[in-house]
C-alpha cells in the first residue's frame, strides 16, 4: 500500500528555473518551471521490495546517481507547476508499483470449440463449392 502524496513531501526536493512557453514577459522575469527530485533508495516510506521495483521500472528515468527528476512548466504559476510535478510523481510511482494480476491459463469451453469447428467446416464447404469438378 502506497502512502498518500503529501507524505512524500519531506523526501522531495524542489528547484525552480525560468520556464519556456506561454507567459509573455512573465516568462522572462519569473522562475515558474519546477523540477522535482526524488531518491528512491533513500526513501523511508518505501519498503525494500518497493524500492527495487521502482528502480527497475523507472531505470530509464533515473540519473546515474539514482535520482528521479520530474519537471513541470505547463502553468504560468510556480505553485501550480509544483502541484503538477507532485501529481506526476505520485502517478508515476503508482504505475511503477502496480502489479498486474497473473493470468490463469484455461481451456476453451465446449461451445467455443463447437463454434470454431463449425466455422472451419463452413469455410471448407465454401472453398469446395468453388472448385470445378473435372
Automatic annotation (TrEMBL):
A GO BP entry: rescue of stalled ribosome
Enzyme class label: hydrolase
Enzyme Commission numbers on file: 3.1.1.29
Keywords: Hydrolase
PANTHER family, per the entry: PEPTIDYL-TRNA HYDROLASE ARFB
The organism of origin for this protein: Hymenobacter oligotrophus
Hydrolase keyword on record: yes
Domain Prokaryotic-type class I peptide chain release factors: 18-34
Gene3D superfamilies: 3.30.160.20
One annotated GO molecular function: translation release factor activity
InterPro entries: Pep_chain_release_fac_I
Protein name (database record): Aminoacyl-tRNA hydrolase
Disordered: annotated segments: 97-134
PROSITE patterns per record: RF_PROK_I
Pfam families: RF-1
Bias type Basic and acidic residues, positions: 120-134
Amino acid at each position: 500500500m502506497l502512502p498518500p502524496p503529501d507524505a512524500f513531501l519531506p523526501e522531495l526536493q524542489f528547484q525552480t528555473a525560468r520556464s519556456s512557453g506561454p507567459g509573455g514577459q512573465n516568462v522572462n522575469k519569473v522562475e515558474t518551471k519546477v523540477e522535482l527530485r526524488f531518491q528512491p533508495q533513500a526513501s523511508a516510506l518505501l519498503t525494500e521490495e518497493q524500492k527495487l521495483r521502482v528502480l527497475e521500472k523507472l531505470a530509464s528515468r533515473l540519473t546515474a546517481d539514482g535520482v528521479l527528476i520530474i519537471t513541470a512548466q505547463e502553468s504560468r504559476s510556480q505553485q501550480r507547476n509544483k502541484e503538477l510535478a507532485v501529481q506526476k510523481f505520485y502517478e508515476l510511482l503508482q504505475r511503477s508499483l502496480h502489479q498486474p494480476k497473473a493470468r490463469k491459463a484455461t481451456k476453451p469451453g465446449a461451445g467455443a470449440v463447437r463454434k470454431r469447428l463449425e466455422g472451419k467446416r463452413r469455410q471448407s464447404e465454401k472453398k469446395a463449392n468453388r472448385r470445378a469438378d473435372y
